[in-house]
Amino acid sequence: MTSSRRCLAGAFLLLFLAVGSSNNANAIPAFARKYGLRCSACHVAWPVLNDFGWRFKDNGYQLMNDRDAPIWQHPGYWPVAFRMTPNFHRDSTDKVQADTTAGPGAGEVQVTAHGFDLSGLDILTAGTLEKNISFLLVPSADETGAFHFESVWVRFDNLAHSPWLNVKFGKFELDNLISEKRILSLSGNGGFYENYHFVPPGDNNAWAQIGDNQLGVAWEGHSANDHTRASAALFSSNDGNVDLVNANSYSGFFNFTQAFDLGGLGLQRVGAYAYIGQAPTFSLTNGGDPIPGSSLGNASFHREGVYGDFYFNKLDVAVYYQHAWDSAYFGTSTPGNGLLPTGARAPTWNGIFVEPHFTFTPQFVAFGRTEFIRMSRQALPTNPSDLGNIDAYTIGYRWYPIMTSRTGLAWHNEYSWIRQTGTSPVSGTDLTSGTLFFGFDFDF
Amino acid sequence: MRTKLQNISLIAGAAVILALAPAGAVAQETEYTESQRLNMQSSIHGKTGHAENAKMNYRRYCTGCHGDFGDGEGENAQWIDPKPRNFTLGQFKCRSTPTGTLPTDEDLYNTIGRGITNSNMPQWIPLTDDERVDMVAYVKHFSPKFVNEKPGTPIQVPPEPEVTADRIKAGQALFQRLECWKCHGVEGRGNGPSADTLTDDQNRPIKPFNFHDGTRFKCGSTDQDLYKIFMTGLDGTPMPSFADNVKPDEAWDLVFYLRTLQPLKTREKEIAKQLGLKPINPNAPPPAQPSENK
Question: The whole model's pTM is what?
Answer without folding.
Answer: 0.82
